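Why should sequence recovery work at all? Because a backbone constrains its sequence more than one might expect. Tight turns favour small or flexible residues, buried strands favour hydrophobic ones, and helices have their own preferences. The token representation captures these environments compactly. In the example below, the structure is given first.
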């Protein structure tokens, strides 16, 4: 899959194409359905399939105080989009200059002149151009002018429309199972394993601590069942009990994400980039008065995680 930041980087003769546009944060099931429709139509008609997206999120430029915490990083979004089968993703740097482009100028410069769009596939709520003035009707008018078709993809969702906002709300509440249902896969946080306080090892449950610059929306504080994925080792997935929070029993102040791989004390994961996938919430964080009840509770957490993940 080609990954580009401007249409000038496209290979000579690229296109004609089937194009879509969006932020695609999290690449949830609604996004995946839309992107799959682009790929299917392009393959059926012998065209190139292209998604246009933006970095950073437009709100981070236009209204920084209201910019959302992203569900997933650009790298993770692109990896998921590649799995769907797109031929290219155009990641446009979102600037005030880009935000000021009229819908007509944007479509002409990007879709028509740049990508040689034969068809544009969008959801019903698509908005684009300065002040979000462009919508599906605008696209249809421009399609008639410039010679491309507009295909509207119906909403996907249980009782409504799946959205990245809904995923964020679920993660804020710690409902990782609900978030996973919308995403169509477990939600993940990705980062390098660094040395922590090593209390887990002292307590008999050595954990892999993710660096503070880990990417992906960190769910609410609590204990979870999930998987540690060794990205650099062929994507090996290991069942894990995961802690998110400040370690209140030890008067911690910094939020951390740490995962104990079930029944494994032999792993050396330091400096390895891993993904921590969240499947089920086990409980909220609790401050214990002493170490003994904490260790007992950790044993219960591990047993529950094992039962959920492996059926044992």
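From this structural description, the recovered sequence reads:
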């Amino acid at each position: 899959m080609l990954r580009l930041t401007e249409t000038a980087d496209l290979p000579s003769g690229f296109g004609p194409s089937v194009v879509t546009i969006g932020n695609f944060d999290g690449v949830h099931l609604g996004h995946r359905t839309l992107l799959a429709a682009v790929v299917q139509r392009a393959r059926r008609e012998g065209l190139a399939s292209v998604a246009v997206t933006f970095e950073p999120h437009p709100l981070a430029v236009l209204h920084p105080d209201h910019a959302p915490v992203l569900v997933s990083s650009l790298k993770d979004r692109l990896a998921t989009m590649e799995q769907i089968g797109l031929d290219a993703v155009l990641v446009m740097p979102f600037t005030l200059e880009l935000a000021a482009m009229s819908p007509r100028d944007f479509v002409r410069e990007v879709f028509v002149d740049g990508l040689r769009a034969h068809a544009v596939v969008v959801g019903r709520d698509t908005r684009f151009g300065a002040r979000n003035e462009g919508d599906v009707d605008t696209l249809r008018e421009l399609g008639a002018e410039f010679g491309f078709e507009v295909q509207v993809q119906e909403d996907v969702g249980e009782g409504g429309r799946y959205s990245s906002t809904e995923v964020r709300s679920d993660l804020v509440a710690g409902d990782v199972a609900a978030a996973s249902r919308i995403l169509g896969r477990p939600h993940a946080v990705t980062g390098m394993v660094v040395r922590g306080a090593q209390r887990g090892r002292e307590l008999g449950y050595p954990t892999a601590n993710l660096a503070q610059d880990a990417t992906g929306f960190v769910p609410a504080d609590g204990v979870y069942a999930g998987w540690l994925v060794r990205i650099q080792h062929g994507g090996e997935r290991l069942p894990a009990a995961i802690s998110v929070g400040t370690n209140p029993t030890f008067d911690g102040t910094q939020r951390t994400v740490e995962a104990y791989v079930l029944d494994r004390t032999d792993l050396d994961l330091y400096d390895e980039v891993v993904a921590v996938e969240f499947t089920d919430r086990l409980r909220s964080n609790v401050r214990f008065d002493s170490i003994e009840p904490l260790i007992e509770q950790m044993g219960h957490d591990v047993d529950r995680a094992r039962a959920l993940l492996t059926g044992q």
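A few observations help interpret the result. The first strand starts at residue 2 and ends at 4.
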